[in-house]
Design goal:
34% helix, 2 domains, 3-stranded mixed beta sheet, GMP Synthetase, Chain A, domain 3, Rossmann fold, alpha/beta, 300 residues, single chain, globular
């Protein structure tokens, strides 16, 4: 199709800067879970922006942090591996930054090394004054020749259209890689696992969330006696300590019930169907070091 733009984009930033919130705002669908916790995103999640003039495939990468486990190493490696495979990099930083911190410096060095076209996105601009924003822009412009600098507020969806405009300018002419109906490369099963983890992150204290992962053992569609669609989903929350298991279940099973209820409501919205969700909690102490589990989070 002549004049049609398409290409691949990597969204990168430190952990907890708002990458997943931004991705969901750009695609106008929930493709990445969000939580006010570090290291929420564990693997590379693709969002597909479709228009009659372009198709943009944006990958939300795990937040850059200092890894302490094999899982952490895989997450950081996934984020940087993306650079060699994309047309454009979106580098997300926080407007409240006073300087280029260690994490941002590490990402910036990798961007400079890649020589890829990069758009700097400054998030949370509603939290600072204009003069501080201008100083931050100047500081980063002195480091790299960014193709554009876009100040935004991801939670308010302010500035997201400008990001798309700037991306379209930089992308080459190309084909449609996905059909118009697709907005992510994840399966509904994978999204459901992530929704359950999102609700667990929402209700658990700081220590526990990093040590959990979700596995759905059963995901089956059937008809009820009234002929209505219903999905039977059996899921397990794995944690690394027996004490964490008790915390996740909660007094009288109340916390687990709350996690499951909120997750079921979101999954029902996604599937547009009734859902029968059952969730268990099991201990798997060293899963963050086990290759057969960690490999699930590697770049495919």
């Amino acid at each position: 199709m002549e004049g049609f733009k398409s290409g691949f984009v990597s969204l990168v930033g430190r952990t907890n800067v708002g990458k997943s919130t931004l991705l969901n705002a750009l695609v106008k669908e929930k493709v990445a879970i969000t939580a006010n916790k570090v290291q929420t995103t564990r693997t590379a999640i693709k969002a597909i922006l479709n228009d009659d003039k372009y198709q943009i495939i944006i990958t939300d990468t795990p937040g850059i942090h200092k890894p302490k486990t094999k899982l952490g190493e895989t997450m950081v490696s996934t984020a940087f591996t993306m650079f060699s495979e994309v047309d454009v990099i979106l580098f997300l930083i926080e407007a409240t930054s006073e300087e280029i911190g260690r994490g941002d410096r590490r990402i910036l060095d990798k961007i400079i090394e890649s020589k890829k076209p990069c758009i700097l996105i400054i998030n949370k601009i509603d939290l600072i004054k204009r003069d501080k924003l201008l100083n931050l822009i100047e500081m980063y412009r002195n480091e790299y020749d960014f193709k554009a600098v876009v100040p935004i507020s991801a939670t308010k969806k302010d500035g997201t259209e400008i990001i798309i405009e700037e991306l379209v300018k930089l992308l080459p002419e190309g084909p449609k890689y996905y059909s118009d109906e697709e907005y992510t490369d994840q399966t509904v099963r994978q999204i459901s696992e992530e929704i359950i983890r999102e609700k667990a992150l929402k209700f658990l204290n700081d220590e526990v969330p990093h040590g959990i992962y979700i596995e759905i053992e059963k995901f089956k569609n059937r008809k009820t006696t009234k002929g209505e669609d219903i999905y039977d989903i059996d899921a397990t929350i794995y944690c690394i300590r027996e004490s964490h298991k008790g915390i996740i279940i909660g007094k009288g099973g109340n916390l687990l019930k709350k996690i499951a209820t909120y997750a079921r409501q979101d999954i029902e919205k996604m599937l547009d169907s009734k859902v029968n969700l059952k969730v268990w909690v099991k201990v798997k102490e060293d899963w963050q070091e086990k290759d057969n589990i960690v490999n699930k989070f590697k770049l495919k």
